[in-house]
Specification:
heterodimer; A: alpha/beta; Rossmann fold; 2 domains; 15 helices; 12 strands; 18% strand; B: 290 residues; alpha/beta; 5-stranded parallel sheet; two-stranded antiparallel ribbon; globular
């Protein structure tokens, strides 16, 4: 192994400082290189997006276990299934918009239905492609993927969670869809000192029982900041980081709904069928008639603009969340 | 290689013709149990399936998970009716399981499920997926420096699907000479002749231009099937292989041959008898006296 290869598999130590300098995709690229050092079954696939998916490091160390399928996503997904049935542990990545829509049938028939350990890292999710526009926005992916039996769906809040989820899923034998952003999204966690269990939500703030915000992805940090500010103004909010959309932590949903009576969901996704949909299903199954609001992209094609401007437009940033929660409490 | 050893090629060919005759009869019988079946395409692919599973492929009777086995993907998943009986005959599961064919909670639907049927390597049914899956298997074999081959059986209409061509370009790009695709060229898809519905010719030139090593044979001639599979280039070679197997939809049952109506259909007891008689009488002449 050359010095640079050694550096890639050993040289990166995660600290809060270094996480801040890496996108979720970069963290994925580094974690997968570390894991592959001890797990010879790991293979990495991309479709001409090595540079965006940040899997170049992996290729540098394990060129024989790296496969670039070119601009042909469906073939890549089915080939990953073929590798999984032959004993490999494939991690594949490309843009969430293509994976969830173009490859939906391939993921369903070749990965989810046979229940194969194909690990899907969907990058550039939500509106994180910003001015890339509608074709590159993935605002339906959670709804599509969570409707597939056998599929686990995780939306990490930040790079620290991404690292933990990638590590955790290398050990399990099922399919998973991990949805990450594009840029240097701000950290929701202050350090790595927390447990991340797939399917178990994390209470980020617990100021009281005026309202609860259940969020995923970039909205977790926005909700945390909103709750901190509202606390100064005397409003006591809980913030739940619902990183796993499926299987949903229904116990936590019911618990905060019962204690607060006011629940807001926030996600970088259509308000139809995503986290908000999943929480709404849980509330109605439990017969809980509470004050409830879903925040996300309304039933339209998202506008062109920088992600931050779009988060503000659809009120899933700190200011938007603050305003919505306040309105509900008045 | 091979299910059984034979002193002469002629005895091997006779044995395979026997197996194909049995399989065709079983396609008719299972269609009756199911209340209908994909008989046309099942009958066209029967000789290919037999030549692969009883001769060309490295398999171990009774052990569907044997590590060194050759892999097979039935990309034309609707051919399950002419595939599952072979897996039973290879003792991958008890033969009486087949009596539930297509019934409530049966392991056998119209399309094969790898988690329900021992020996099925990949669940299929939606057309155009199997070759891509085969590419993934062949890549894994390369990584492991394994000697096993991957065989994928495609329908001819199936190659209308764009994903097949994504797979075709990737197989030559990744130099997968350990991958062999067979096209069951029966010339009919569900709605009629492939060349009228959506033409696929010139098949040979199209696949050759994608970097494949193409052979073109009579898919009902056991000698040609055996010779073609026996003379595949070494597993280490670089060009993926395509066998265009020219077949007849409904082969063996005179009233079904070349008629798209029998793509999926049912039979009453009288018609079943007629079909079995036709299968028996149209069996190729024996090369060696029994």
């Amino acid at each position: 192994m050359t010095d640079i290869q050694k550096q890639i598999v050993n040289g990166f130590t995660f600290t809060t400082d270094t996480y801040d300098q890496l996108t979720q995709a970069e963290v994925y690229g580094k974690v997968i290189s570390e894991l592959a050092e001890t797990n010879p079954d790991i293979v990495v696939l991309t479709s001409d997006l090595m540079r965006s998916n940040k899997t170049g490091d992996f290729r540098r160390v394990f060129p024989e276990r790296f496969f670039n399928f070119g601009i042909a996503e469906t073939n890549m997904v089915a080939a990953a299934a073929g590798m999984a049935v032959s004993g490999k542990l494939p991690f594949l990545s490309t843009m969430a918009a293509f994976l969830s829509l173009r490859c939906a049938e391939t993921i369903r028939n070749d990965v989810a239905y046979p229940n194969l350990p194909v690990k899907i890292i969907a990058t550039h999710a939500g509106v994180s492609m910003g001015n890339g526009g509608t074709t590159h926005h993935a605002i339906e992916d959670i709804a599509i993927l969570r409707s597939l039996a056998n599929m686990t769906v995780v939306v990490p809040a930040d790079s620290i969670e991404t690292a933990k989820v990638v590590r955790a899923t290398a050990k399990d034998r099922g399919p998973i869809y991990i949805r990450i952003g594009r840029a240097l999204e701000p950290m929701a966690h202050e350090n790595e000192e927390f447990d991340l269990t797939i399917g178990k939500s994390i209470t980020m703030r617990d100021y009281g029982t005026d309202a609860a915000v259940i969020a995923c992805g970039v909205c977790v940090k926005a909700a945390v900041d909103a709750a901190d500010m509202l606390n100064e103004e005397g409003m006591k909010i809980k913030v739940i980081d619902m990183h796993t959309i499926k299987p949903l932590d229904t116990e936590a949903v019911i618990s905060v709904a019962e204690s607060c009576g006011v629940v807001v969901t926030a996600e970088e996704h259509s308000i139809i069928g995503g986290l908000g949909g999943a929480v709404a299903e849980t509330l109605s199954d439990a017969g809980l008639g509470i004050k409830f609001k879903r925040l996300g992209i309304p039933d339209i094609y998202s506008a062109i603009g920088y992600p931050e401007d779009l988060y503000a437009r659809y009120e899933i940033d700190t200011d938007g969340l603050k305003k919505i929660v306040k309105d509900l409490l008045v | 290689m091979g299910f059984k050893e034979f002193a002469t090629k002629a005895e091997l060919h006779d044995f395979l013709d026997d197996k194909a005759e049995e399989l065709r009869s079983e396609v008719i019988r299972l269609s009756a149990i199911a209340g209908g079946g994909h008989m046309g395409g099942g009958l066209s692919m029967a000789d290919i399936i037999v030549a692969l599973h009883y001769h060309a492929m490295n398999l171990k009777v009774g052990d569907p998970k044997w590590a060194d086995r050759d892999r097979f993907v039935l990309s034309k998943g609707h051919g399950a009716i002419a595939y599952c009986p072979v897996l039973a005959d290879l003792e991958f599961f008890p033969k009486d399981w087949l009596e539930t064919f297509n019934r409530l909670d049966s392991p056998f639907g119209m399309h094969p499920d790898m988690n329900k049927i021992p020996g099925v390597e990949m669940s299929t049914g939606s057309l155009g997926h199997g070759l891509s899956v085969g590419v993934g298997m062949a890549l894994s074999a390369r990584l492991d420096k394994a000697k096993w081959r991957v065989f994928v059986l495609l329908g001819d209409g199936e190659i209308n699907e764009g994903m097949v061509w994504e797979a075709a370009q990737s197989a030559s790009h990744f130099k997968l000479g350990n991958l062999t695709a067979i096209i069951d060229r029966n010339r009919l898809s569900l709605d009629g002749p492939t060349e009228e519905i959506m033409s696929i010719e010139p098949i040979r030139e199209r696949w050759e231009s994608f970097g494949w090593n193409v052979s073109d044979i009579d898919g009902h001639n056991m000698k040609q099937l055996v010779d073609t599979f026996d003379s595949l280039p070494p597993v280490e070679s670089e060009a993926p292989n395509l066998v265009i197997a020219r077949t007849v939809k409904g082969k063996g049952v005179d009233f079904m041959e070349n008629d798209p109506i029998w793509h999926y259909s049912g039979l009453d007891a009288e018609k079943s008898e007629e079909a079995w008689k036709s299968i028996h009488s149209s069996r190729p002449a024996r090369r060696v006296e029994k």
